[in-house]
Amino acid sequence: MDRTLIETYSAPVPRYTSYPTAPHFNAAISATTYGSWLRALPEGASASLYVHIPYCDRLCWFCACHTKQTRRYDPVERYLKALNCEIDTTALLCGSRLIIRALHLGGGSPTMLTPTDLMSLGARLREKFSFAGDAEISVEIDPNDMDEARFDALAAIGMTRASLGVQDFDERVQKAINREQSFEQTKAVVDAVRTRGVRSVNLDMLYGLPHQTLASIVATTQKLLSLRPDRIALFGYAHVPWMKKHQTMIDEARLPDAVARLEQAAAAAELILAAGYEAVGMDHFALPSDSLAAAARSGTLRRNFQGYTTDQADALIGLGASSIGLLPHGYVQNMPATGEYERRVHSGGLATVRGFALSNADRMRAWVIERLMCDFAFSRCELLSRFGEPARAVITEAELLAAGDRDGIFARLGNRFVVTERGKPFVRSIAAHFDVYLGRGTARHSVAV
Question: How far is CA 334 from the centre of its chain?
């Protein structure tokens, strides 16, 4: 590890799950705007649904999601009534014309819902939208929520992919992030969903956590690999206490520095690759038979607010408080505050409060950044073919970046601009060179490594 190189390229930058990124969304995109965008979706368009459940029965201190802790279920019941209203309103605008290719239940903790409510939610979505026969149904699972009835409910709604957060199995690390979850609990969930026919299991790990060491992350990786998940996400902990106040519960003095973070990531990645997994993008791994690995090999990998995905749908429709959607016209985001979200949808409208209308220039830069994040490269000829003469400005930027590179992280190789092996840990920083909005506004981001 070259400390100087790491320090040079570890400055905070976005994670680029969208472009422009969410801090640049604006209030000019209203519920009225969103309604017109939904009505404009053509007959037979494909779509994915993301349903957000913004509640947990415990609050993990590392979490940067829009969620809140509750020990009572009645706020969840109230929220589900509003969510059902939003589903109905959205379906009236576009539901009969769309083919749903994927559904993702995220949070928060979707598995906090009672089995009855899980099945009711699944039934309502299928009643209001037309699901493809092979639609992927993925659910984020908190092992501490689970019992036999919930496993059966998830099977009843057709879950095809289960996603579990592991973070780190070391008890000291778990206590420091308020996320106690044993290996045995995790294994029990993996076994239970596989018994019920789930064909894909995704496990998430974090590096850069308080008290985390090379030894703890190696031990966690070895235990995780013993479960043979189909996909593994190896995320760097994003410490953003100015945005998520509960992260102030984490002792910053116990966080590893940028060099230690990269050493942890490299140690875990080495073990995962040695176990037969293929690298996907900057922080995912998949078995060669998994569709995510196939997409990475074929150059069809995508990136959205759920991370790396095979999703090729024409639209992503977000449902629930704070949910973000993407339509051909641009991005939309719902009201994050649950009370105001509920008021808006019960009044018969949508809950959109901000978004971003995409220009052709935005789409061009979004394509470049997505290809860098997914393929570590983009084609000069393909860029010109897709976007015409305006692409020459971006090509000039890429040529200048490659010509000025003295660290061996970005180069032009024939028709392609590529992130080198040396540069891959810093791909977010490289992508940031093509982000014309980054210097505007006051948004703060997590470190780049």
Answer: 17
